[in-house]
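Entry 14. Ran structure prediction on the chain below.
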Amino acid sequence: NCCDPSVLPTAFRLKRNAKGVFHVASYRRLPRTLKVAAAAWNSAKGKIFIGHGKNLRTYNYRKNKLGRIFRVPNLTDITGMGFSPDGRFLIVTTGDEQLRRVRWATKRLVAGWTFGLDRFGIHDSRAVAVIRARFYVSDGDDTRSNADPLKYAVHVLRRR
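Output, structure tokens:
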């Protein structure tokens, strides 16, 4: 609901050139009605997963095909997703500014594993990546002034 209806859902494949700069190598148009808030690559499964609201599904870039919708009980308002390096856990940001952990084998939330993001000044979590036991969470808060160094910041967090 955030975007202009003329913006069409599209998947991009990026490649890094010799200087380390990313460029668009190819793209796939997605169905006009598809809503996507988050996407993540599970290297252990060799698959892309996309999410919106409480819905998750696979996406095959080469064939430009969407898998069937499935859900994780009690997981709603997905805004960002990233897998642990071993693919055992899906880490999700949600609209209520929580970082949640899903045990991927069972598709269940890990009990007691909820990490509040608002206390770090994150107002609009949009993505999460897991790198070396740290969580990189981007904040898409449009209300911050252009002079605020936290406007569109990527916060680096570590859960002890």
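The chain has a mean pLDDT of 91. Will compare against last week's run tomorrow.
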